[in-house]
Amino acid sequence: MRKRTLLLAATLTTGLLAALPAGQATAAPAGPTTDFNGDGYGDVALAAPYAKVGGKGMAGYVAVLYGTKNGLDPAKRTVLSQNTTGVPGTAETEDTFGEALAIADLNKDGYSDLAVGAPGEDVGTDVDGGSVTVLWGSASGVKGGTAVKDIAASTHDNWGRLLTTGDFNGDARADLVVGTGGTRSYVLRGGFTRSGGTSGLVEKIGLPETAYALDAMKAGDTDGDKKSDLVLTYRTHNTSHASGSWSKGVAYLGSSDGVDSSSPRPLNGGTSIALGDIDGDGYDEIALGNVFSEEDDQTGSLGGKVVVIRGSAGGPVNGDAPMAVLTQDTEGVPGTEKANDGFGASVSIGDRGNDGYGDLAIGIPFKDDSGVEDSGSSVVLPGPRLSGGRAISQSTYDVPGVAEATDYFGSDILLADVNGDHRADLTVAAGFENNGAGAVWALRAGTSGISTAGVRSFGPGSLGMTSGYGAFGAGLTG
């Protein structure tokens, strides 16, 4: 159970489908969303937040894997910790460097940058005060870093427990949102500089009601106005169903003044969030994965669920009328629902068919694959109807490895193009593969969907790191 708790902490940083209107499918983007070295191939970042660094347990490190014409290659990587030259700080016990990750071109130099949270870092005498570091992209890859100042250190702990990025006021400068150990998050307005400078403008974002804790946050454009909208999920209490605990969500639309928190849009709750245009109409949908059981939360389900909220010109459509409510018992979704499978622990949206419709990838890390307890699995559901999907696990033909107890395959998942063909490839993590070391599988998208031909699997040893306990693969983003 402790491993499940740790896994959920790392990934928090997760009905019958109604017919969807076809809409107008949009063209594939001209270039990758994430490109740290500017070579035209999409890149992926991940972390091992519980790994030992310099003899310090749970100090943590992050890795950037650079895309190539053949997909991800662990030989093309950069690994950074707080012991790396040019990165602020020093690796210390239980810093959990990498527990939260977010990507954007924060200094507008044409290269993606990586924001890294270390919520367990002690800052002077402030135990668990937390830190956020921006690692800078360049023509030679990610190198060097700058600390992002905690602008309210006396009011909270765990600065950097959650991170996301977006352009919330439409000024073409990326903003950084930082979540803490409480229920408040902070929008730091761009631009950012390598010397640590920012615009100095900060928005404090609260919740529409008293709550126990934030669970997840992500940004996207749900109303097509070229301003990012902020989606948050939270729990009202740290109690059981019987005591009235609820998992809830809220969306705040972007505006010329930034995040408009004066008009909250209520949503379903969850433990993971993804945004992307599933129905091809130019508005991002919101996928909310919720692993809470019915016993743990009034909004929970037997084996986990994913609720998809439609985007529109007015923003996200009311959460009471979702586009889809998905479980493993939903028609067109592979598998059979069982208690505590964790369906929805991780979610990602990307266009793996290059057809203008976003597809939905879902991690199921606690599923008993082939009867092996908590070995884990995943599914990819094609848009726009999110039906007729495929299950992928270590029991799938041509996928390396063997399903073992508590591997947690699907603990993190990502759909993103890493070989330049404008098809979103699938990257899946098993956070506790090999007794907690963790591992990642990279599968390419083909003309008929995700292919297992040529799939690559690698762990910390492939990156020159030790293979001890670390949850390698946490926070997959790209």
List the defining traits of the structure above.
478 residues, mainly beta, four-stranded antiparallel beta sheet, 2 helices, 3% helix, 32% strand, disordered N terminus
Task: Give a verbal description of the structure.
- This protein is mainly β and 478 residues long.
- Helices cover 3% and strands 32% of the residues.
- The chain is built from two helices and 30 strands.
- The strands form eight sheets. Strands 3-2-1-30 form a four-stranded antiparallel β-sheet. Strands 4-5-6-7 form a four-stranded antiparallel β-sheet, with no helix packed on it.
Spatial sequence of strands, sheet with the most strands: 3-2-1-30
What fraction of residues sit in β-strands? 25-35%
The total of helices stands at 2
**pLDDT averaged residue by residue:** 91
Q: Gap between N and C termini, in Å?
A: 30 Å
Q: What oligomeric state best describes the polypeptide chains here?
A: single chain
Contiguous uncertain segments of 5+ residues: 1-30
Helix content: under 10%
Query: Which term fits the overall shape?
Result: globular
Task: Give me the count of strands.
Answer: 30
Largest sheet report: 4 strands, antiparallel
Quickly give the structural class. Answer: mainly beta
Rg value: 20 Å
TL;DR?
3% of the residues lie in helices and 32% in strands. By secondary structure, the protein is mainly beta.
